[in-house]
Design a protein that fits this description.
With about 270 residues, the protein is mainly beta. The protein is built from one helix and eleven strands, in the order H-E-E-E-E-E-E-E-E-E-E-E. The protein is about 5% helix and about 20% strand. A hairpin with a 5-residue loop joins strand 10 (about 250-255) and strand 11. The termini are far apart.
Length: about 270
């Protein structure tokens, strides 16, 4: 059975129903925009209140992009232009810098800093903590060490060196200069030479000898010795020891200045 339209009723009731449906509808809750896109102009604002902006494709921003809250990037981030960060920056993961890096302010590194390539520092550098250098180190400028310098390995100085203060060698260390050695282990200290000669002190005198010859100087005497024979000068006069005996007449003369002469008188 077909519906019979009442010709006495008007169309306004249906029009009002459809108008009310349009007024209360929210078509943007589930909308799709095709090739035409959406344009917000004349200082208009696209406001997302307590929602999410999800971009599955490309998001291109030609103006200023401002983020006042937190930002999380889970993928790769590429920046081809300048990057200016005015606030604190924290990098928790691995950071690789392939180009030149310029730091004009303070640089605070609290963890390990590993530099595998060349590092050039043109400004002043201050190291307040312990510094370990495991490789070779070359200093072409002045090296000013104002604190204690502890060298446990071999120290090789090839250039000219100037010492303006005391040099103290401890723990019975030796000082070698060519074939000459300052040796604190010989007597009370000695200067030894490669040919066997020595200059040393026994605490009461200083002596110089080589082979069977020796010269000894003490506070009360001076002596020249070779083998078992000696000539000594002390407060009592001059003494010659181990003189050979002879039946010849005396032929020595001493003048008023103390010089010895061999007499030719019969």
């Amino acid at each position: 059975m077909s519906r019979v339209e009442n010709l006495n009723s008007g169309e306004f009731k249906d029009i009002f129903r459809r108008l009310r449906a349009l007024e209360t509808a929210a078509p943007m809750n589930n909308a799709a925009v095709g090739r035409g896109g959406i344009e917000v102009y004349d200082q208009g604002v696209l406001n997302i209140s307590n929602g999410t902006l999800l971009v599955n494709g490309l998001a291109s921003i030609t103006g200023t992009f401002r983020v006042s809250g937190g930002s999380t990037f889970t993928g790769t981030v590429g920046i081809s232009g300048p990057l200016t960060v005015t606030g604190p920056t924290k990098l928790n993961g691995q950071t690789d810098i392939g180009g030149n890096t310029s730091v004009t302010g303070d640089l605070d590194v609290q963890g390990p800093l590993d530099v595998t390539g060349a590092m050039t520092v043109t400004g002043d550098t201050k190291l307040n903590g312990k510094t370990d250098i495991g490789g070779n180190t070359t200093v072409t400028g002045d090296l000013d060490v104002r604190g204690p310098l502890d060298v446990t390995g071999t120290l090789d100085i090839k250039g000219m060196s100037t010492l303006q203060n005391d040099l103290e060698v401890r723990s019975n260390g030796k000082v070698k200069v060519g074939g000459m050695t300052l040796d604190p282990t010989v007597s009370s200290g000695a200067m030894t030479f490669s040919n066997g000669a020595q200059v040393f002190t026994d605490g009461s005198s200083i002596q110089m000898f080589r082979g069977d010859g020796a010269v000894q100087v003490a506070g009360d005497r001076a002596a020249i010795q070779w083998g078992g024979s000696s000539f000594t000068v002390d407060a009592g006069g001059r003494r010659i020891s181990n003189l050979p005996q002879t039946t010849e007449k005396p032929n020595l003369y001493v003048d008023s200045r103390g010089y010895l002469y061999r007499s030719t008188a019969a």
